Amino acid sequence: MPHNRRTSDPRYGNRPTMKDVAAQAGVGLKTVSRVVNGEPGVTPETEKRVLEAIEALGFRRNDSARVLRKGRTATVGLVLEDLADPFYGPLNRAVEEVARAHGALLINGSSAEDPDRERELALALCARRVDGLIVIPAGNDHRYLEPEIRAGVATVFVDRPAGGIDADVVLSDNFGGALGGVAHLIAGGHRRIGFIGDHPRIHTATERLRGYRAAMAAAGLAVAGSWVSLGSTDPDRVAAAARSMLAGPEPVTAVFAGNNRVTVTVVRVLAALERPVALVGFDDFELADLLRPGVTVVAQDPAALGRVATDRLFQRLAGAGLPPSRTELPTRLIPRGSGELPPAN
Amino acid sequence: MPHNRRTSDPRYGNRPTMKDVAAQAGVGLKTVSRVVNGEPGVTPETEKRVLEAIEALGFRRNDSARVLRKGRTATVGLVLEDLADPFYGPLNRAVEEVARAHGALLINGSSAEDPDRERELALALCARRVDGLIVIPAGNDHRYLEPEIRAGVATVFVDRPAGGIDADVVLSDNFGGALGGVAHLIAGGHRRIGFIGDHPRIHTATERLRGYRAAMAAAGLAVAGSWVSLGSTDPDRVAAAARSMLAGPEPVTAVFAGNNRVTVTVVRVLAALERPVALVGFDDFELADLLRPGVTVVAQDPAALGRVATDRLFQRLAGAGLPPSRTELPTRLIPRGSGELPPAN
């Protein structure tokens, strides 16, 4: 029987089948089934090939039958953090694409960085009977989700860990990335390096600060109190912090910016200065390479964060009885000029 | 009776009341009520003051009582277009903020620019009993929403008009903005101007093309077929289109880019050229002013689009029996250098 026999079956019209996907991807039917149902045992490369074949063929799982069979709604909820932060764009889109490849509808809502809104939204999505929930947490206490998780709502945290509960989490190596970025500045001759980050209640902010401190300590460099500033990423706050550490008797010769919102403001402050000040930013951002100098960054892979988290969610939904896991994705230093400026005297 | 009497009422704990909001904003109680309930008759300035007071005091309408009274869910749905296009960030956030100020929960989903997904998602949100729907349309036929609208789901379209139904729409002056941007290039001495835009099935793309053609015609300039390219905003497609119109016997000396995704790619292509080519882009984007030359743009106000559309939605929900309206917001030309480069010979 040729592999595409069922595509010519009138009952299915021209809709592609799993067998078509298997043939296109050059893998076995069981592998396609594993990917579609989110089961383990498929390498990332193979999964990518299968997902590309699914996309190319326009394959759609027959969801209505599935929902009837499993008592599910084929809907997944995503609690976003900030709708206007471009970092989350590729992450959100990756979640959507994986959900779509699994035949699930994705419903989002944004916490706008407010723990109360996160809770309200997550519970509202559960009340609307999502099968699973992906949360970019704003708060540090997620015990409110325990009854939902017990009731069967698969839950995966991404970008930041859950607080007070044991749940799957997928995040970047924030500590190691910041450590590497600051070590890069130190290797370039800098001794007075500033750190400007997000609110200290945010996990990524404190992890990156920890990386900064570890790099400075490893090089035997003391950190003046005026060189560290955590708080809102509001441009006025960040610009004031940058100007403050660039002035005074011990001005910094380099700045490590704790996330893309901070970096963009620091770029503006530095562009108005007469002397060159080195800059490395956590997070890549659009056009960073076209600025003069190009902005050196510690890049996360936001799409991979979203993809891995959603894969994990569908593994749980497929009934894989695995213990909660913590996945940390590596970051990548991209030198573009700003981080390679020598210290000015 | 002091205005804050009820805040000390134990039944309400310390929750601020509408009277507190009125006092803080320096307006009457009826005005606050109008804003909270989305009724007409409040100037934008006053509304802004009331919304700021609501935010400052942390005022929340008592929704459970309201839902019981009106049979509503206090949930609004937003059909997004592309989660990774930064243009929509401020629009989405404005929708969220206005919904929040009205005590409503916002649930989003993204069509990823696919009409089938838009339809699937809009109907899924209706099935989950949203009171109202804001749609950034991907498709051109919205008759599928007619039964929902008849059943009472308030629906407002934003950024692009609805197709096949008569519904509220809030959009930018796409025609006028493009016309002004191209006229600006012509005033600078350009005669051979290229246009690179989005898919011709997208309303904004064709409106902006119409503006380009009108400006060229008004100046008595013929448009060579090779100067116009519509299609996907995929960087490879856009870069190829730009390179093609910059080569050949009649190369363009200026490019008008049809949206921010196109502009960013054209900036990259032009940065690699030896001769200067002028550029005006539709949509402002982050860091446009820090590039060298700064990028001249025709700026929309995406936050205002979201705000006006959501105001309209809550006016409908408040029962204002108004006929469907079309609101067009003006655009603004921001000269930054790239659009003021003279034609190279």
Reconstruct the topology from this structure.
The structure is a homodimer of 345-residue chains.
Chain A: H1 18-25, H2 29-36, H3 44-57, H4 63-70, E1 75-80, H5 88-101, E2 105-110, H6 115-127, E3 132-135, H7 146-150, E4 154-158, E5 168-172, H8 174-187, E6 193-197, H9 203-218, E7 228-230, H10 235-246, E8 254-257, H11 260-271, E9 278-282, E10 296-299, H12 302-317, E11 326-329, E12 332-334
Parallel strand pairs in A: 1-2, 1-3, 3-4, 4-5, 5-11, 6-7, 6-8, 8-9, 9-10
Antiparallel strand pairs in A: 10-12
Helix pairs in contact in A: 1-2, 1-3, 5-12, 8-9, 10-11
Biggest sheet overview of chain A = 6 strands, parallel
Order of helices and strands of chain A: HHHHEHEHEHEEHEHEHEHEEHEE
Oligomer classification: homodimer
CATH class of the largest domain in chain A: Alpha Beta
Q: Architecture of the largest domain in chain A in CATH?
A: 3-Layer(aba) Sandwich
Our Rg estimate of chain A from Cα atoms comes to 23 Å
Cα-to-Cα separation, first versus last residue of chain A: 77 Å
Report helical residue fraction of chain A: 40-55%
Identify low-pLDDT runs of chain A: 1-15, 62-69
Shape by Cα distribution of chain A: elongated
Largest interface: A-B, 37 and 37 residues
Please report which band the strand proportion of chain A falls in: under 5%, 5-15%, 15-25%, 25-35%, 35-45% or over 45%.
Answer: 15-25%
Q: Which fold name corresponds to the CATH topology of the largest domain in chain A?
A: Rossmann fold
CATH H-level superfamily of the largest domain in chain A? Response regulator
Briefly note the structural class of the backbone of chain A.
alpha/beta
Strand order of the largest sheet of chain A: 2-1-3-4-5-11
